[in-house]
Design brief:
The complex is a heterodimer of chains A (260) and B (219). Chain A is α/β, with parallel strands linked by helices. In chain A, 40% of the residues lie in helices and 23% in strands. In chain A, the strands form two sheets. Chain A has a six-stranded mixed sheet, sandwiched between helices. In chain A, strand 7, helix 7 and strand 8 form a beta-alpha-beta unit. The longest helix of chain A is centred in the C-terminal third of the chain and has 16 residues. Chain B has nine helices and no strands. In chain B, helix 2 runs antiparallel to helix 8. The relative contact order of chain B is 0.15. The chains are: A alpha/beta (260), B mainly alpha (219). Chains A and B meet through helix 3, strand 6 and helix 4 of A and helix 6 and helix 7 of B.
């Protein structure tokens, strides 16, 4: 499987990357969080970003859709640098889906209304079409029967699956996952990872910040190790998990209680 | 001193009209001061100094001067200096609305600030404008969260409407005071006034308590 994936990556290298971080620098005051990060994500690729906490992984994703401004370098989406104007940024955000560690479902809306919200308000879709799309997506994540429930009545895993459906409702060209299973009870992690794995198999371009090493190993095309705001190393999962070049990568991985 | 309670019954319709006026003032003021408070809160939270500063000045002025002064000011200064002529009712309503808007603004500001950033991030990430994120995602949650405080403000406002009696708006307080000086039945009229305010205010206070209790157990 790895051999064919590698070939696919090489073939796509000629094409325009879907998302590219080029020498990105981000600081909060004096605290440098991203110190010249360069990552390329090709169409259909699943890139898992791993690394110790505080390494800048989550900030990286927030920079990708301009929720956080960057101080240097550039972020290129589909061949175009992120626009500087508010309207331009909104247009780009419509094409990127984001899933948060703490779900961030809108608590005053039902599951269905959460999924409809984007198509209704941002895409200006009519009520019937938005509803049909939202119902289909809830069905896709296995929650068709929870459409009328409010988030507070759902388990963590169910909430996160609704959040994934909500992001998919915009028909994004890339999905950004920010530690999507870190806030979940162990028994519900599997259902969320299952949904993500299916998305990957359907060819969705994904950037996944995660501590789930088994997922990274099985689903990622490429793993990027971030440490202290820099890319420590990157490569296919097998290379990173079994023959890491950098001592710090090996050290980080050895601290994780993972069973591969 | 012999008490003559018949005087209260005799003027029951005047007192009822005064009570109706008090309720009308309370309801209208709140109807105007809720949007007013939201607008001021949004201005104070804006990144634009041009919006932030006037709103801050407005709120700090009206919050930190006595309401009775604001009522007098609207009554005397508006017509004489700005040639704005309003009825006594409209003047009282204006002063109350400006005052309560200033208080509501602080309530909404606290409520809006209490909604964690991830909520607006999630709204923005799907491509909503800042205004859409505010209106569709942040504000409804903030309003729900500050409902108990708004209820408390409501009860305070209900009693504070009596201050418009100083500019001869015939609310319950003004009517009762007028009847007192006309009939010289001081104790009877003041007692009647107290009982009517209490009879109207007590259920409101109970409803407020109920809202507080109901919201306390929730996120």
């Amino acid at each position: 499987m790895n051999a064919t994936t590698d070939k696919a990556i090489r073939a796509d290298r000629a094409a325009v990357p879907r998302l590219e971080f080029v020498e990105v620098r981000k600081a909060f005051g004096d605290l440098v969080v991203l110190d010249g990060v360069t990552i390329r994500v090709d169409p259909g690729e699943v890139v898992c970003v791993i690394g110790p906490s505080g390494s800048g992984k989550s900030t990286l994703l927030k920079c990708a859709n301009a929720l956080e401004p960057i101080q240097g370098g550039r972020i290129v989406f589909d061949g175009q640098p992120l626009p500087a104007d508010a309207e331009g940024i909104r247009r780009v955000r419509r094409r990127m889906g984001m899933v948060f560690q703490s779900f961030e479902l809108f608590p005053h809306m039902t599951a269905l209304a959460n999924v409809e919200a984007g198509p209704r308000t941002v895409l200006g879709m009519d009520a019937a079409s938005a509803r049909a799309r939202a119902e289909a997506l809830l069905d896709k994540v296995g929650l068709a029967d929870k459409a009328a429930q409010y988030p507070s009545a759902l388990s963590g895993g169910q909430q996160q699956r609704v959040a994934i459906a909500r992001a998919l409702a915009m028909e994004p060209e890339v999905m950004l996952f920010d530690e999507p299973t870190s806030a979940l009870d162990p028994e519900t992690i599997g259902e969320v990872l299952g949904v993500m794995k299916r998305l990957a198999e359907e060819g969705m371009t994904m950037v996944v910040v995660t501590h789930e090493m088994t997922f990274a190993r099985r689903v990622a095309d490429r793993v990027v190790v971030l440490d202290r705001g820099r890319v420590l190393e990157e490569g296919p999962p097998r290379q990173i998990f079994e023959e890491a070049r950098e001592p710090r990568t090996r050290e980080f991985l050895s601290h994780l209680e993972w069973t591969g | 001193m012999t008490l003559d309670w018949s005087v209260v019954w005799e003027h029951r319709w005047a007192l009822a009209a005064g009570a109706a006026m008090t309720i009308q003032l309370t309801v209208l003021t709140m109807l105007l001061a809720v949007p007013g408070g939201i607008l001021l809160a949004a201005m104070r939270l804006s990144p634009l100094r041009l919006l932030r500063w006037p709103a801050t000045a407005f709120v700090e002025f009206f919050r930190c001067t006595p309401l009775v002064l604001q009522v007098y000011w609207a009554f005397y200064v508006l017509p004489s200096e700005f040639d704005v002529r309003l009825s006594g009712f409209a003047t009282g309503l204006l002063a109350l609305t400006l005052n309560v808007s200033a208080f509501n603004s602080e309530t909404f500001r606290a409520g809006i600030s209490s909604i964690r950033r991830g909520q607006s991030d999630a709204a923005l990430a799907m491509g909503m404008s800042s205004f859409q994120a505010f209106r569709i995602v942040v504000l409804p949650q903030a309003v729900k969260r500050v409902l108990p405080v708004l209820a408390t403000t409501w009860v305070a406002l209900f009693k504070d409407t009596s201050l418009v009696s100083v500019i001869a708006v015939s609310d319950l307080a003004y009517t009762a005071m007028q009847l007192r000086s006309r009939t010289f039945r001081i104790l009877e009229m003041l007692t009647a006034m107290a009982l009517i305010y209490w009879a109207m205010g007590y259920p409101q206070a109970k409803i407020t308590d109920w809202i507080h209790r109901r919201m306390a157990g929730r996120e």
